[in-house]
């Protein structure tokens, strides 16, 4: 796509950004089944299994009792009532996908009520045995403990079933021997309640940890995406600035060199994290170069990848000697360009200043005075060395070197 500027400049292509498809699953949304739902499904399966077992026990007990005494055949109607009630109860819970305490309460009332018909028929027939519906109650009692209600409510449901069983006229008179039968109902409810509460608490903690992990992963993903975008923007900006500085798109030499220095500083900051410290060698030389460019001297530079490790005295000596060398270029070389190269060798740091000016005969110069001797004295005081090479018409090269710190 091309955009034409209003001032008549030629069109420039705009960057084509890739279009990302929409995310069907927003970050932070749990799309799979939670642990709490899995626990409720497991409790529902356990409830269905217990109710089927209780119906089987009821069918066996009633068929056995009615086969021995025709007067007890009406008890077979209880099987139909229990089956219908169980189907309705399980259908409601499955529709709600959880054990509803209202449905469990109705279930407890119906189970307790099934004790009375069996007891009345057994009493009428003269039998003194436990009602055939007792095992049905014991097998169905744990459902009251699996309901999502507090322990007092579960104990109240257990007490209701125990009272219905104890008040049944067909039950053997209460004694120490019959107490375990009644206590088993309470124990089944309490054990089921403890298991259900523990499972729900663990599921809630797992879901909370999962929710936090998903939220944290979403934040990290967004930060990573923002980092990638920022990195791309930085790279594009740095490339544009470097092209402006290297291709002479900026007419003013001072501005061009300032952009190049700032670009070099940004590149070093991004890649190594090192800032342009005026107290460091590269920082001091960079500010010196900017100063000389401002005075009209174009200085071409080449820097090392990392800041050399030098003492403050060595850094001050190199920067001061470089200032003297560049000042001599301005005063005596009769040129407007110079080159500054900084190298970090195995155990030395070398700074070279060169120009293509008129040069001079080093053998005819009296040493001990002037800028050349000042350069040598600065380096000697820092434990370094200064070598000056020049010839008439061939320019000048000054090599400054100091030993690196270990």
Describe the 3D structure:
With about 400 residues, the protein is of the alpha+beta class. It has 2 domains: about 35-210; about 275-405, Heat Shock Protein 90 (2-Layer Sandwich), CATH 3.30.565. The chain contains 12 helices and 7 strands. The protein has helices at about 35-70, 75-95, 100-115, 115-125, 135-140, 140-145, 150-165, 180-245, 255-270, 280-295, 310-335, 370-380, and strands spanning about 1-5, 10-15, 300, 335-345, 350-355, 385-390, 395-405. The chain has a 5-stranded mixed beta sheet. Strands 1-2 form a two-stranded antiparallel sheet. Helix 2 packs antiparallel against helix 3 (about 100-115) and helix 7 packs antiparallel against helix 8. The longest helix has about 70 residues, at about 180-245. It is rod-shaped and about 145 Å long. The two termini are about 55 Å apart.
In one word, what is the shape?
rod-shaped
Quaternary class? single chain
Distance between the termini: 57 Å
Name the structural class.
alpha+beta
The total tally of domains equals 2
Q: Total strand count, please?
A: 7
Percent range for β-strand residues = 5-15%
**Global mean pLDDT:** 77
Count the helices. How many?
12
- Major β-sheet annotation: 5 strands, mixed
Radius of gyration: 47 Å
With strands numbered from the N-terminus, the spatial order across the biggest sheet is 3-4-5-7-6
Topology as a string of helices (H) and strands (E): EEHHHHHHHHHHEHEEHEE
What attributes does this structure have?
406 residues; alpha+beta; Heat Shock Protein 90; 5-stranded mixed sheet; two-stranded antiparallel sheet; 12 helices; 7 strands
